[in-house]
Amino acid sequence: MSTPSEQANLRLTRSEAAAYLGVSVHTLHDWASTGRYGLRFFRVGRKCVYRQSDLDDFLFARTAGDTSTEASK
């Protein structure tokens, strides 16, 4: 079983990262080649590798505010 720090440093291939984010591999490739969103990745030879912690940070930065009805009461 892996520890939380090991999970945070988990490395994902581009196809795994795309599935994790819910976007296509093509979209992730476009973001990387244009620099859109500044999503960090690493090159290992010709392969692109993403850290899960960077993907989590990316998602957290784009999380919309609380839209629940409880927050408005």
Question: Would you kindly provide a written description of the structure presented here, covering whatever features stand out?
Answer:
This protein has one domain (4-61): Multidrug-efflux Transporter Regulator, Chain: A, Domain 2. The protein has 73 residues and is α+β, with helices and mostly antiparallel strands. Strands 1-3-2 form a 3-stranded antiparallel β-sheet. Helix 2 (14-21) packs across helix 3. The chain is globular, with a radius of gyration of 15 Å. It has 4 helices and 3 strands, in the order αβααββα. It is 45% helix and 15% strand. The mean pLDDT is 86.
Write down the overall geometry: globular
DSSP summary, beta strand count: 3
* Structural domain count: 1
Radius of gyration: 15 Å
CATH topology: Multidrug-efflux Transporter Regulator, Chain: A, Domain 2
* Order of strands in the sheet with most strands: 1-3-2
Per CATH, which architecture? Orthogonal Bundle
Helix content estimate = 40-55%
Beta-strand content bin: 15-25%
Regions with pLDDT < 50 over 5+ consecutive residues? Answer: none
Tell me the name of the CATH class.
Mainly Alpha
Note the total helix count.
4
Order of helices and strands: HEHHEEH
Mean of residue pLDDT values: 86
What's the end-to-end separation, in Å?
42 Å
Structural class: alpha+beta
Major β-sheet profile: 3 strands, antiparallel
